[in-house]
Amino acid sequence: MKIIMLGAPGAGKGTQAEMIMEKYDLPHISTGDIFRANIKAGTELGVKAKAYIDKGQLVPDSLTIDLVMDRISQPDCNGGYILDGFPRTIPQAESLSAALRSRGDSLDYAINVHVPDEKIVTRMSGRRACPGCGHTYHVVYAAPHEEGICDKCGSALYLRDDDAPETVKKRLAVYHNQTQPLIEYYCGKKILRTVDGTKDLEEVFQDITNILGA
Ligand code: ADP
Ligand code: AMP
């Protein structure tokens, strides 16, 4: 099964993608996580990507598309995958469709996690990320057992620089301009499924499993 996660920054794409990964045993590919790993490792890609990420802008398609095409051609993706944070532009979506089509393949579902803008800033200011395993928490809605410490790997949690309210506002504007058109795009391809991302995260997951099947 090949799934993409759509939705505003902070809608809960990564949270749900991790749950889908565990239940359906599919690789979870997050472009944001790939960029952050490159920034941490100080690679050339990381240095270039950071300049855009810090400003709340998208990393250019020229740096993003080949990276994802290469990742989904790895053997662990043969049985499918969950793409989280990609595609974010129409050219990205078209490159993905073309790559799949060339293998006689196509996406199964575009899951759109819908959360209105007014709830996004609260979501993001409470988000805490783990630098060790990448798991995401929320200080109120998904708190770790011990404050500031990852339940899974024990690392100290951090607040992402790009989750500062001013950057979140820019990211939301970028989302509406560049990414939201993908909702129409995948609706036209008849694979769009929208879930209410304001529900409790277990309820959102239940709605997603109702779509994907047992
Ligand atoms: P995205 O990957 O779409 O940017 P995340 O999955 O990182 O979003 O979620 C953003 C923040 O909101 C995180 O702190 C996460 O714990 C929290 N969150 C995710 N889903 C829900 C939900 N259904 N209700 C409340 N908080 C949520
Ligand atoms: P995320 O972790 O999905 O919130 O992504 C964090 C940041 O990484 C985004 O604000 C973008 O700057 C960048 N990014 C992630 N995925 C993409 C993508 N598909 N295209 C362009 N930029 C991306």
Which structural class best describes the helix and strand composition? Answer: alpha/beta
Let me know the CATH homologous superfamily: P-loop containing nucleotide triphosphate hydrolases
Helix content: 40-55%
Cα radius of gyration in angstroms: 16 Å
Please, how many helices? 9
Number of strands: 7
Q: How many separate domains make up the residues?
A: 1
What's the shape?
globular
- What is the level-2 CATH architecture name? 3-Layer(aba) Sandwich
Strand proportion:
5-15%
Strand order of the largest sheet: 2-3-1-4-7
CATH class: Alpha Beta
The rounded distance between the terminal residues' Cα atoms is: 13 Å
Major beta sheet, specifics? 5 strands, parallel
Describe this protein with a few key phrases.
214 residues, alpha/beta, Rossmann fold, five-stranded parallel β-sheet, two-stranded antiparallel ribbon, 9 helices, 14% strand, binds adenosine-5'-diphosphate, binds adenosine monophosphate
